[in-house]
Fold:
Amino acid sequence: MVDKKTGGAGLRGQVAGKSAICTVAQGHSGLTYFGYEVDDLADNCDFEEVAYLLFTGELPNAAQLADYKARLKKQMDIPTELKAVLELIPKDAHPMDVLRTGVSMLGNLETETDFSQGRDKADRLIATLPGILCYWYRFSHDGVRIDLNTGEDTVAGHFLHLLHGEAPNDLHRQVMQVSLILYAEHEFNASTFTARVCASTLSDFHSCITAAIGSLRGPLHGGANEAAMALIEKWSSPDEAEREILGMLERKEKIMGFGHAVYTESDPRNAIIKKWSEKLASNVGDTTLYPVSVRCEEVMWREKKLFCNADFFHASAYHFMGIPSKLFTPIFVMSRTTGWAAHVFEQRVDNRIIRPNAEYVGPGPRKVTAIGSRT
Ligand code: COA
Structure:
């Protein structure tokens, strides 16, 4: 019988290329970015340090970090033409589609015409993604044209400030930093692989990122945090959650935010975001959502040995920070753009077009018959 984790469909367990960026569940090293454990980065760094690490292979010193933050801060506003496009997108559009369009439009306005511009294009995108998202969100939902110059010098602070129209508190700032670090990179996941396939055709930077956003959108990948929220917010007590989860398992339904294509016993990002979700729950006086989430975790492990992935406790954490559910997956984009970009650059350094074969299982050779004689 084929082992689902190492063989069979979905290229599971296949090595599809070399990378020096990230380890995932390899040996005892767990999830690392250029050799640094993700816990260590989440405890000690800002997202901008991690972005710098992913682009250069090294953490910045204090001067380099200050320069980098200043460079991002200077380019957080977006072109007028892009604002005009965002104003045309309806309120009920999915924000992932908004980001896909926003990145694509920026690619028309600020096209990468030479690969030497790649790093600048990546920085520009990291600086502008919160603005693209929040400009559309606030215009379509509240009818306001927000100023994208918040004065914040971190992506985390800038995003929360734009969304809520005021500077975030320290706890929210910190949780958003951690969240962006946890989501930044994850080896050859579906969206990163999409970006690398696109890069391998020698396509431009914005096309690679647009393609990756399309991949991340699905509920089996990045969309799981929003889908998990839709699930847990329906339940008003842990007991109700347990009953419903048991019913769903009985009906063989998927519980979003659980399981993983690579990890077999736990996702190293879960304990980190769970801890912050608990802190936020106590901060807002929650007595429902966090206990419901914990019960889901217990039941899934007890019944199926399935564990929470990075997305599950992100749902409650984001909710406690007043972030609307449909913006959950776009936050993943703001973060993972760093990982996607790092992989695009790595692919370009030693490129060969990615073009696997298919095992053919269709009909045998046959001849075209005259149209009138076909049944
Ligand atoms: N809820 C219920 N059952 C699940 C499950 C979930 N979240 N995740 C896996 N399973 C079941 C599968 O249906 C399968 O059952 P089967 O053997 O009876 O067919 C079994 O567990 C093993 O699945 P596995 O091979 O480990 O999954 P995969 O590698 O094909 O897929 C995911 C991995 C992540 C796509 C899958 O776990 C999933 O769909 N999770 C929910 C979506 C999600 O949270 N995605 C974010 C990932 S970071």
Notes: The chain has a mean pLDDT of 96. Residues 224-320 form a domain with the Cytochrome p450-Terp; domain 2 fold (CATH 1.10.230.10).
